[in-house]
Amino acid sequence: MEKFYDRINELEALAQIEKQSEKTACFTVLTGRRRIGKTQLLKHFINGKKSAYLFTSRSAEKSLCEQWQKNLEESIGLKIFGKVDKLSDLFEQIMTHSQTNHFTLVIDEFQDIEYINKAFFSQMQNVWDSQKANSKINLIVCGSIYSLMTKIFKDEKEPLFGRSTHNIHLKPFTPSVVKTILRDFNPKYKAEDLLCLYMLSGGVAKYIFLLMNAGATTKAKMIGSVCNMASPFLADGRDILISEIGKDYGIYFSILQAISRGLTTQSEIDSVIQKNTGAYLQNLQKVFGITDQIRPLLSKSESRNTRWQIVDEYMLFYFRFIYSHQDLIELGNYDMLKELILRDYESFTGKTLERYFTAKLKEEGKITKIGGWWDRKSMNEIDIITINDLEKSCDIYEVKRQTKNINLSKVQSKADAFMQNLNGYTQKVSGLSMDDM
């Protein structure tokens, strides 16, 4: 059995919710991008507890009811006499059972009920509202299509809006956990191996274990594993995004490709796409959760000095190297794909290293703000700044792959320009390189 890593905070939160549900019904919504480890977390949590795990397969409602009915009887002893053909009737029986029995119920891929019976969400709302007061159920639903899960629970027009009592958004593993996993599989790993693993996974559990279980624990083996006919890394980006965006993905993919190549302002993106991409960029951020709009640290929220970034490391890698070279993949020329990745690897991972250290500094805490900074003309730019408002201190970092390339005197002049925004704060200028990973 695969070792279970981390998720300490999430397990603590789930345990507290479970305890609360012994007295009053709880309805938890767990979200997170595909491959992040939602199912593994929930199965680990319910192991040994009185619980039922129900998977939503895209089958006919009648056959899904039969499958769920069987699971419920085997796992929590819920006996339903006669056959139930409707999910709403089955859910009503579950809620009735929970009035005299405390248990945890997990419904996975919950958003797929939309394809089975759209009316179920309204029916579920009616049953929940009428029975929750006397129920002791710990209901947890999770789904991997972020846009649909967000719509179901956060759109005011939807019947289940406001019904969840708790919301957990599962994030990628932190740098320290990624490092622990790599060390377990390769005790003699080098910083380059760790950086490459972070570039390909960004801490997403499935990608890490696909590589580790394949024995790809060094940079060379990881790139080799990706550039392979059977590699899931070659198609996963496209498959995940089409499940989110749908058939009209062409312009979205072109935008993501432009961002991956370093075109980060809307004007730069518009010039490549040759149309106003404002609405598309907003959808990528707010509906699909793939991009983020960033501003220089401490700038005003209305500032137009903004840049767009892809927030998912694997997706950034996918659009920079895989989507951009589909012709090579179709030709089966994996060796040339590997050569192209290795050719641009060092320049590409310079920014990966910045994001790694940003995540590492967030994880280590003791900060109230973190971000990068650049002036309007992008003449002065600082990689990472952390601020501690309690101690009135500010740490300014230059990030380079190699320590010898860090020039702190140049950073100091940029720091002086930034510190005009922070009167009365102490400042410290430092360098971070692969030696500090």
Keyword list:
48% helix, alpha/beta, four-stranded mixed sheet, 437 residues, five-stranded parallel sheet, globular, 19 helices
Short structural description:
The chain is an alpha/beta fold and about 425 residues long. Helix content is about 50%, strand content about 15%. The chain contains 19 helices and 11 strands.
Helices, strands, pairings?
Layout: H1 8-21, E1 26-31, H2 38-46, E2 51-55, H3 61-76, H4 87-97, E3 103-108, H5 113-116, H6 120-131, E4 137-142, H7 146-154, E5 166-169, H8 175-185, H9 191-201, H10 205-213, H11 219-226, H12 236-245, H13 250-260, H14 266-273, H15 278-286, E6 291-294, E7 307-310, H16 313-322, H17 326-331, H18 334-364, E8 369-374, E9 381-388, E10 393-399, H19 408-418, E11 426-432
Parallel strand pairs: 1-4, 1-5, 2-3, 3-4, 10-11
Antiparallel strand pairs: 6-7, 8-9, 9-10
